[in-house]
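User: What would this chain look like folded?
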Amino acid sequence: MENRITPEKIISLKENEIFVFGSNRSGRHSKGAAKTALNKFGAVWGKAAGLQGQSYGVPTKDRNLKVLSIPEIEHHIRKFILFAKNNPQLTFMVTEVGCGLSRFSPKQIAPLFTKAKNLENIHLPKRFLDVLNK
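Assistant: Here's the prediction, encoded as structure tokens.
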């Protein structure tokens, strides 16, 4: 996993890399990593989840921007991991999904990515890996 750590700040991507960000169910990508996804990596305004250009949205908030529960976020992360597993030609650069504007800690969110540790095409933030490796 050492060579599969997402950089803290992603400013560019290779052709096969995908920026994975936390979104809201209305697809209003106006702040945080979602804004970066919209402005730089092809996220689509109004599209909440899934592949969008060179980005992949994982909802962490509802349509009214209320934070989703951990089980609801886990559902979206499971869908993401399955998508990544079915698309091994792509490399997924996961940001600290749920840890910015949704205010969860890496200790709360990282365990939801446990199955991602075994997928070579998923890179995780260092703080997630620190939790998963304990």
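The chain has a mean pLDDT of 96. If you want, I can go into more detail on any region.
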